[in-house]
């Protein structure tokens, strides 16, 4: 599959895409997409590369010194006695010390430079992926398990480190060592070089086979890891539900199966990698044997000295050793590319809902809202529409209540008005402007929504209220709560307004969360306010207490109230009844009751305490 921005990316579910990805072979050229990410840290990478080059030079100093010591360390005097050549020995000693000290210092420097670059690049990438995820449309989150996204930002980004950061300097060092050793061997004796080079075709064949067998398996490892992470995240989020339904055992079993799939793919990888590294080890031994046979012959024929033979033994390791390292580098490359592919899949996913190139302005919002012949389905191809040619107008400053049976499309209208989803037919208009022509952030600034299940962020109640008005003082925030009539309720909390709300507001009751969100909406002061079952979790007495405040909240703005407790919306300027995605009745409470139609039936059922 090409990693382009094809429409398929937008309609296929994330799971379908990933399964397809796991089955297919890895895409070539991924490395070239990764390369630009190194641009900000190029100085670190160049530094690490220079350090590796100097390190290689220092490594080759050693066999040269050994050759000098063997061939010239002892000099024969005229009397036929052997004397130590102190000049050579001293220089050899100094050379060895420089080589070891340089290696010690430069290896540390190279590690430091690579490590610093890694931290910068990978965290930069993490922020880019995070930012991208935030900009995706809500439809993407309907289709994608949150654990899969976590797996990409966390594990897949980490998997890139060995490929992108340590990879290039290590690869360069390995190639340099191999090439320099090859040249030195050739210069010592072409016979020695050719005897060693004969093992290269075997190595190439083994590399090709390894690549062929390993690459699709690495994609499977990454996919399996995403699956069990997704399951873990879902379990943590839904732990109460799992306990309540006594599903711990089956849930654990499912996790175990996912881990087993992961382990099996991992074992296959380990097997292949282990086989490859042992095979290259055998090749090195074979090379050494060839060198001893051919080198011994060269010494016997007087073509090379003993010192050169000893140095050549080192060159064998320098020549074939890096080829062994290539196996490890290759494994990292395949592993990293599998992760990179998944990250780019996410980065290439375009938000389904995008702003127009020059969006219309929405200053001085009056607050007129119109749903004009709206058709909408949650399915991308329009099957089973939830909203079917719905027409509904709300005048500026009007309080409209929307009622209707469960699952008939009331909340969907809110999603369309805030443009979390795009209509598939007709239009939603604010002050006569199609919401598709407006910038999303501007639209949402003017349309405030309080939902049944509201999310609070970790922090105090004040922190959460400040989200609506960042510059407000504590006194102003408390005054807003007072104006809505909930000051007393918040003050009774253990630390009043400074009470920590916990993750997603879990330390507060459902009703308390709803009240904090109402104050937050009041502070945001939107031109259009939507209350979607916003007080459903508040007890009836408290709701009655804040009824007056709610009326105040709705005053001077357009308000759309969705409620099942029909007593709370009786005073609305107008009530619209939604059934099967259409408006089937509208009017004031008394008129609708007199008509004796859908609303009257709903109301009678409500009064009788029945569910609808
Ligand atoms: N994100 C979604 N993806 C797919 N289908 C959805 C999604 N959200 C809602 N639906 C479906 O759309 C239909 C209308 O849902 P909606 O939430 O608008 O109903 P509602 O009238 O507000 O119900 P309630 O009174 O229970 O809040 C339902 O059948 C629901 O299953």
UniProtKB/TrEMBL annotation:
Q: Name one GO cellular component term.
A: plasma membrane
Membrane topology is: Multi-pass membrane protein
Chief location of this protein within or outside the cell: membrane
Cited Pfam families: ABC_membrane, ABC_tran
GO terms (molecular function) for this protein are:
ABC-type oligopeptide transporter activity; ATP binding; ATP hydrolysis activity
Q: Which UniProt keywords apply?
A: ATP-binding, Cell membrane, Membrane, Nucleotide-binding, Transmembrane, Transmembrane helix, Transport
List where in the cell it is found.
Cell membrane
Listed transmembrane segments = 41-61, 82-102, 183-210, 275-294, 300-323
Protein name, per record: Putative ABC transport system ATP-binding protein
